[in-house]
Design brief:
0% strand, mainly alpha, 3 helices, elongated
Length: 80
């Protein structure tokens, strides 16, 4: 667990240094990093839902998973 936290801390330190070097450019880079992170999180959630959908047997559960999948697909489209 500590490794993940440490790597995020290092990443934020690098981003801070970049912000100090070029404020206008760094803001764009920071925004892009946030979008990339959000996209990665959505894609991970999508994979998880697809795996659950493959094993789901109850129709209502499948319907809920399909709705969640459609919602995530919509969010991915908005990020493009």
């Amino acid at each position: 667990m500590a490794r993940g936290w440490d790597s995020k801390d290092v990443e934020s330190q690098v981003a801070s240094r970049e912000n100090m070097a070029a404020p206008g450019k760094a803001q764009k880079a920071q925004d892009q990093l946030e979008k990339d992170r959000e996209r990665a999180n959505i894609e991970l959630s999508r994979k998880h839902i697809l795996n659950d959908l493959e094993t789901a047997t109850h129709p209502n559960h499948k319907k809920t998973l399909e709705a969640a999948l459609a919602h995530l697909d919509q969010k991915l489209e908005q990020l493009k």
